[in-house]
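Justification of resources, computational component.

The compute hours requested in this renewal are based largely on the per-chain cost of generating structure records like the one below. Each record pairs the submitted sequence with a full structure-token output. That output is archived, and it is also reused by downstream analysis tasks.
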Amino acid sequence: MSRRRSCPQLILTTVLCWLGLLTLWQYHDGKLLAMSPPVPSPKRYALLIDSDVHGPSNWALAMDVVRGAGKLVAASVVLAEESPQSKDPEWLSKLATLGIAARIVPAKDGSFEVVAEASELIMTGQADAIALAVKSGDFDFLSSKIRDGVTAFKQDSSFKFEIMEIG
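The structure output for this chain reads:
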């Protein structure tokens, strides 16, 4: 037995159906297009490389590893100004070709430079994550210093960011 709907019920049902459809579809240049759910944007990574550990043969590979995890937004290599590589035209040219910044600092300040640059990139919102290509023994020390610095500056325990080790 079919049940007849009154005119107001029919109108209401029709309107609700159309509203439901409109939440799933949108018009663009007169064409009806399906709306897809928003896709989260990939994490923005900054790659920081210790030149004592990783030379030119590893730079492009490290960049590819980071790109596999998210979007590479910045890359730099920390070079000790006392090392011959800091003045080596081949090294500097390879860095420029790959789009990697050279951070030439006194050897004693290398770790400080890594921590300062990583913290600045996170705190200014330029990166959501840091990839460190450093000695395995240095990773824990550097990542804890970066976390401590950012947490102290942000003063927000809910603020999260990622630090990835590139070996």
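The two ends are 72 Å apart (CA to CA). The helical segments are 7-24, 56-69, 89-98, 110-123, 136-154.
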